[in-house]
Please model this.
Amino acid sequence: MLLHQIIYYIIVALRCCIKIIIAPKYFYDEVIL
Model:
């Protein structure tokens, strides 16, 4: 189904965005601590 494929790509994109946003935060927290 096309809809299922679109939802899958949206989830993958969101996970990538979360990694990009959260990873630097953890990195900076480790550097500060």
Summary: The CA atoms of residues 24 and 30 lie 10 Å apart. The chain has a mean pLDDT of 85.
